[in-house]
Amino acid sequence: MSPTRxxxxxxxxxxxxxxxxxxxxxxxxxxxxxxxxxxxxxxRTKAASLGREGRTVPTGVDPADFRSFHDGAEHGLEETFWExxxxxxxxxxxxxxxDSETGEETASx
Length: 109
Hints:
The protein is built from four helices and no strands. It is 62% helix and 0% strand. It is mostly helical.
């Protein structure tokens, strides 16, 4: 990384590249791990914080630009939060959710 520019997320070494399926599997397997819960809570809190900050426009700043930036950031974090929550579900959770939505009973009922 060059000392003359700001770091980008891809500058951080996270180990070997994982596929979307591998990421989902890891999040599903570690669904109750404190680190996963901490990351989700951080995203949720940061999204709410951006929403609150965007309502108080500093003097000398274009209100529309300021609000749009905060709305976009809040929306992006919320979207990421819900994606990660969905990845935490195991196949059994998905099957049970589907069954409850369709009114079907599982074989164990």
